[in-house]
Design goal:
single chain, alpha/beta, TIM Barrel, 7-stranded mixed β-sheet, two-stranded antiparallel ribbon, 11 strands, about 25% helix, about 20% strand, globular, PHP_domain, Pol/His_phosphatase_N, PHP domain protein, Pol/histidinol_Pase-like
Length: about 240
């Protein structure tokens, strides 16, 4: 076994407020430059750009897990990370249909382009991906697990879109881990495995925060085992890109 560097919270150009420079090739190149062995693409409320980033990752020898950052009915964020593109896209279709339909405002949130591996725009999502779902947290966790995915509440210690900001507490759900922004923890984490990620919306933020997991290989199944068995560590806090661990 060895320690692998991971960042499970990265947004592409389709995410509201995601920079248009966050195309598949750029994401994979920056992840490789930062020495990441495994990343997850977690755009807001959709996995439509996951196939392109996954393809670029395969070409570069980087493990890219497909996922979403959900906005639940409570208006809190949760990472949903899947073992296969098929599972992610199936979940994504269901989740998108659950969103409160609001027309997208590009002047406020920027464009929402879906791209291919060559970074060519193949469609624009017309409804707002910044909307909340009608599905609550409990049902969302269950649905993610039904597709074999990992359910990880995002930045639980932030002042917005987090468990503590929206609920005032961390609920007792079968989370696979919790994501913290402040390391070491400043709030109760109830014994869940703790990870930290970049939440990158711009290329220079990829890998600025990360965690390490001990495993045979940087794969979904090995990551899941490492989380379950506590083979996780974090060593850095918001280091500038390019700083070695």
């Amino acid at each position: 076994m060895r320690w692998w560097k991971a960042d499970l919270h990265i947004h592409s150009c389709v995410s509201p407020c995601g920079d248009l420079s966050m195309g598949p090739r750029t994401i994979v190149r920056r992840a490789a430059e930062e020495g990441l062995a495994l990343i997850a693409l977690t755009d807001h409320n959709t996995a439509r750009n996951a196939p392109a980033v996954h393809a670029c990752g395969e070409e570069a020898g980087l493990t890219v897990l497909p996922g979403l950052e959900l906005t639940t009915a409570e208006e809190l964020h949760m990472l949903a990370i899947f073992p296969t593109l098929e599972a992610a896209l199936k979940f994504s279709s269901w989740w998108e249909a659950s969103l409160i339909t609001v027309p997208h405002n590009p002047e406020r949130y920027g464009d929402q382009p879906v791209v291919n591996a060559a970074e060519e725009i193949i469609e624009e999502i017309p409804f707002s991906l910044a909307s909340a779902s009608t599905v609550d947290l409990h049902r969302a966790v269950k649905a993610v697990h039904e597709q074999g995915g990992l359910a990880i509440p995002s930045h639980i210690d932030r002042g917005a879109f987090s468990c503590y900001s929206q609920l005032g507490f961390l609920p007792d759900e079968p989370f696979d881990a919790v994501e913290l922004w402040h390391i070491p923890p400043q709030l109760e984490t109830r014994g869940y495995p703790i990870i930290t990620n970049s939440d990158a919306h711009f290329p220079d933020r990829i890998g600025a925060r990360y965690f390490l997991f001990q495993a045979v290989a940087p794969t979904f199944s090995e990551l899941k085992k490492a989380l379950t068995e506590g083979r996780i560590r974090w060593e850095v806090r918001d280091l500038p890109p390019g700083t070695s661990s």
